[in-house]
Amino acid sequence: MNIDKVLDAKGLACPMPIVKTKKEMNELESGQVLEIHVTDKGAKNDLTAWARSGGHEFLKHEEEDQILKFWIKKG
Description:
Distance between the termini: 16 Å
InterPro entries: TusA-like (IPR001455), TusA-like_sf (IPR036868)
Domain UPF0033: 7-31
CATH class: Alpha Beta
Radius of gyration: 11 Å
Protein name: UPF0033 domain-containing protein
Order of helices and strands: EHEHEE
Pfam family, one: TusA
CATH topology: Translation Initiation Factor IF3
Shape: globular
CATH architecture: 2-Layer Sandwich
Organism: Metabacillus litoralis
Number of helices: 2
Number of domains: 1
Structural class: alpha+beta
Number of strands: 4
Strand content: 25-35%
């Protein structure tokens, strides 16, 4: 998977990971992929719902050493 940008939102509580993700997505072109790193466990549901409601493609997520990683393709 080609990653176009990485957002470090570790240590931020809701709603800041979504706010920062939205800002970064606005700077990407359609079809580009944003990788997001968060530590807020609530971000899983929030980012999934936000991506779908915004017309983006939620590609996948995984957890590694207490860090949740998400990949979203801009719609």
